[in-house]
């Protein structure tokens, strides 16, 4: 009785014949790709509005600082977190749209993709920052590299906080938290400038210490994100 039932079920649920199986099996594996080609390839997957928004924020910042020369550095430092927010949007896109599991099935690892895209956006933002530095150094009459440190600290603080939230919160809520981080860091720049005048020469040592600490913290968060991606991938592979 059981044998008869199994035979009937096997006939009923018989899988269809595979199509183009021989062609698929005879296909050659994908050719290796260099690191530079891989990074350039990932640039095409960054949304065009991300590049356009970065340029728009930079153009607005130049216009504001040119018209508000007295407090140009404070205004620019307060806008730096929103540059970082643009990069954070690209980093958290897969988790926001629940595409993380699908990305694990791609040719390249998720951590490589994230690092490549964040590196591209970070380099682009750094290039825009270098264009802005001479203007701010002229208005504030301070050293060129001092101005760079004052702008990098709020940028890196926002990226660090955004990566912390992206590892702990999933879904669209992470974007609201990243936006809150950007607003908080931007307001902190305004308050610190108004109450403590912390862009003075006597405070510069603390800014250097903050920059070094934030560089280390961002590196640690990148490492934690890569480890988390590997753990999820290994767990998913073990369940297959």
Can you walk me through this structure?
With 240 residues, the chain is mainly α. Helix content is 79%, strand content 0%. The radius of gyration is 25 Å and the shape is elongated. The mean pLDDT is 77.
Q: How would you summarize what this structure contains?
A:
This protein is mainly α. It contains eleven helices and no strands.
SSE layout:
Layout: H1 2-12, H2 21-26, H3 35-43, H4 48-67, H5 72-91, H6 93-96, H7 100-103, H8 110-140, H9 144-168, H10 173-195, H11 204-239
Strand content: under 5%
- Give the low-pLDDT segments: none
- The run of helices and strands is HHHHHHHHHHH
The total count of helices amounts to: 11
Q: What does the average pLDDT come to?
A: 77
Helix/sheet category? mainly alpha
Helicity range of the residues?
Answer: over 70%
Beta-strand segment tally: 0
What about the largest sheet?
none
Span between N and C termini? 33 Å
**What gross morphology would you assign?**
elongated
Q: Give me the Rg, rounded.
A: 25 Å
List keywords for this structure.
mainly alpha, 11 helices, single chain
């Amino acid at each position: 009785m059981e044998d008869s039932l199994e035979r009937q079920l096997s006939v009923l649920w018989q899988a269809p014949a595979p199509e183009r199986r021989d062609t698929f099996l005879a296909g050659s594996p994908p050719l290796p790709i260099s690191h530079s080609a891989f990074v350039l390839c990932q640039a095409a997957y960054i949304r065009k509005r991300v590049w356009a928004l970065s340029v728009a924020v930079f153009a607005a910042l130049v216009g504001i600082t040119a018209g508000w020369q007295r407090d140009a550095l404070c205004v620019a430092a307060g806008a730096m977190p929103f540059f970082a927010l643009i990069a954070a949007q690209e980093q958290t896109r897969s988790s926001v749209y629940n595409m993380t599991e699908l990305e694990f099935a791609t040719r390249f690892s998720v951590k490589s993709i994230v690092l490549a895209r964040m590196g591209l956006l970070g380099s682009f933002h750094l290039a825009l920052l270098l264009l802005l530095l001479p203007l701010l150094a002229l208005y504030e009459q301070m050293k060129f590299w001092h101005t760079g440190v004052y702008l990098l600290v709020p940028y890196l603080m926002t990226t660090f906080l955004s990566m912390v939230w992206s590892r702990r919160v999933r879904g669209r809520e992470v974007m609201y938290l990243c936006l809150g981080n950007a607003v908080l860091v931007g307001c902190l720049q305004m308050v610190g400038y108004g109450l403590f005048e912390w862009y003075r020469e006597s405070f510069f040592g603390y800014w250097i210490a903050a920059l070094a600490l934030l560089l280390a913290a961002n590196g640690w968060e990148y490492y934690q994100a890569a480890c988390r991606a590997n753990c999820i991938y290994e767990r998913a592979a073990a369940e297959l």
